[in-house]
Amino acid sequence: MRILTHNYLQSNVKGTEKGYPLLIEPNRVVVEESPVNLSMLQTLLPKLDYSAIVQAARQLATYEDANEAFTVPDLPDLLPETLDDLFLTALYKFLFDLHVIEGHLVCPDTGRKFPIKEGVPNMILHEDEL
Amino acid sequence: MIPMDPSRYYVLVEFAVRHLDFLAAELASVLRLHGITYGSPDCRVETLPQLGPHPTNSTAIENCSHVDHKNTVQDQQRRNEKRQRPFCILSFPFDAPCVPRLEMLADEVDSAKNLATSSKSQTSSETIGNIILSRCVLVRSVMELWGYGPSLDDCVEQVRQWTDVSSGSTTASTLTTTNCQHSYQKLVRDHGRSWKLTVHTLGCTYSREVQEAMRSRFQFLALPGPVQMNDPTDEYVLIRETELDDHGSPLPGGSIDSAASGTNPPRTRYKPNDSVSCCYFGRALGGTRQTKHRGDVSRFSLKSRAYLGPTSMDAELSFVMANLAGVGQSSVVLDPFVGTGSILVSCAARGAYCVGTDIDIRVLRGKGENSNVVSNFRQFDLPRPELIRSDNAIYQRHFRRTHIPMYNAIVTDPPYGIRAGARKSGSRLDQPRPVLESNRHNHIAQTKPYVVSDVMVDLLDVAARTLVLGGRLVYVIPSFRDFEPESDLPRHECLKTVHICYQPLSAELGRRVVVMQKQSEYDPTQRKTYLAKSWKNGAKSAERCANIRDKIMEAAKLKPNYQERAAVRKQKRKIHKEEKKRVKLEKVEMS
């Protein structure tokens, strides 16, 4: 699961008000380099929730200490007004090249854990949660 | 004779004779990617020269054994009404503003790179040729058209006029603008370009002498370069078109050349018949005519993939679907019924960022490290697709409510219950038993059957909600021939139908690829109204889409000897099952 995907997933267990953004509890994260495509990022960026990206970066940063295989960019709280290529490239790599392979996504309201296995988040709701 | 407009250049597109209903749709979609509107004044579709009536049409059918007698007459009528010819002539004005965007093209497709290296000196027709050849799967070759007509004489005459105009003798003063780079001027001056002239015929064979005679008609071109049969710089092609059937074979009848078929009876040859052929003369673009482009699809063949399922889409059709969806570099594409990912592979190969969701975790995980959806992408050096296990029936509950439309295309083959049944979340019980919190982490969520008509309605709703304006939904639907696409397909106020392409699979059954385009913004408060208007004829239309499996079963039961065959199959299954049981038992005893 990429951080980009985290940006639009939500928990909607019966009775949840918001269920967004989900907390990330990573157990294994890998980096797969891909060609940087800034024009795609620029069209996507206005559609993303920037505060959720910052939150994800903070959570992954705590995990980063245990494993030095990847770096999390130091993101400002608010999206800068002028975006230079350096910032965008760092953001692109964070959103597209990091993959949470094993771990959990946790609903901020109910604490319901959605497992991530082999890179696939399982968002299916159980029959009593519909 | 059809006059050619000297202020325009003409391009002949030769299609492969397959997926006949898709040809124009694919071409139009690929041109749209480059901002060219197929059929507009900037890209006019010229009428093809009339093919003469087939002299032996009616009698031939009766003599021909392989034609099904039951529906010959109707079939023949239908075919005559709507016969697709594997050619298309497009004409563009020399000063079209939209054409030269080659830098973009070169980035877009790897295979185009080597074509586009000489982009600086490229003429407009070469640019168009590259655009078409680098993407269209169903295009066989593209030619810069110098002349065409219903007979060889007309064709020769038109080529003569065309070269006269372009070499600047008559109306050249009005044409010599900077944009006007007529190929002939360039070619006739260049002594270094080797060339050959090929005579290509469809559905009949000409003897060498006749071919030579045809070639000599074009002597007046006076091309200065050396003739070279192997790998020349330019290939000039004279195409003689005769009427073909839906499989690309000549129509039965004609006059069979008995001398030619003497030793080799199965390969029937048809004698050329001047009254039924049209001629096209031009220069092949993007290499010689035989150069295999076809959108560079062959290496993606399903045979080469480690992970396949019963519903994997064949490589050719999935590339056609990607073209119909207008998938390009930087597109974001969703397949809500991803399965083994076969459709997304073709989108990723065109440079898209792919997201796939499915309710079945088993298909997403695959059969281990080297046989799963991700490995199918890795095999072609494509970036990992984004896979999510979620339920398309409740899309809006899995994804952010303030979700701004972000997908450029949704390309999918929904489950129709023929080879893969559809499921959605939920229990069959009215009051589902609560799951113990201690078991929550490894509880297997229950699913229940998902009615096909609801699959369709939900798909359209998700598409309307998540596509960007102008984004396209492309989906496959199996259907019977009597199916009325206009009234029976589901509809949505925010989506308009652009193309419907029919692929026959058997006499009665086929599948349609439906292309819809988002035309207006989705208003979430109107959802109920949208859903209520999905079917034109209410439940009746829904039912026609839905019960295809049942109809296939019913149709199968009507076939002769159905009962006996079913009994044999049942017996075989029973034996197989017992055998399996026995092996299992033996293993247990051994250990």
TrEMBL record, chain A:
Coiled coil: none annotated. InterPro entries: Trm112, Trm112-like. It comes from the Eukaryota. GO terms for molecular function: protein heterodimerization activity. It comes from Phaeodactylum tricornutum (strain CCAP 1055/1). Belongs to the TRM112 family. GO terms for biological process: rRNA (guanine-N7)-methylation; tRNA methylation. Signal peptide: none annotated. This is Multifunctional methyltransferase subunit TRM112-like protein. Gene3D superfamilies: 2.20.25.10.
UniProtKB/TrEMBL annotation, chain B:
Keywords: Methyltransferase, RNA-binding, S-adenosyl-L-methionine, Transferase, tRNA processing, tRNA-binding. One of its GO terms (biological process) is tRNA processing. InterPro entries: DNA_methylase_N6_adenine_CS, RlmKL-like_Mtase, SAM-dependent_MTases_sf, TRMT11. One of its GO terms (cellular component) is tRNA methyltransferase complex. GO terms for molecular function: tRNA (guanine(10)-N2)-methyltransferase activity; tRNA binding. Residues 305-429 form the Ribosomal RNA large subunit methyltransferase K/L-like methyltransferase domain. Residues 245-268, 565-591 are annotated as: Disordered. It is an enzyme of class 2 (transferase). Its EC number is 2.1.1.214. Residues 576-591 have a biased composition (Basic and acidic residues). It comes from the Eukaryota. SUPFAM superfamilies: S-adenosyl-L-methionine-dependent methyltransferases. PANTHER family: RNA METHYLASE-RELATED (PTHR13370), TRNA (GUANINE(10)-N2)-METHYLTRANSFERASE HOMOLOG (PTHR13370:SF3). Belongs to the class I-like SAM-binding methyltransferase superfamily. TRM11 methyltransferase family. This is tRNA (guanine(10)-N(2))-methyltransferase. It comes from Phaeodactylum tricornutum (strain CCAP 1055/1).
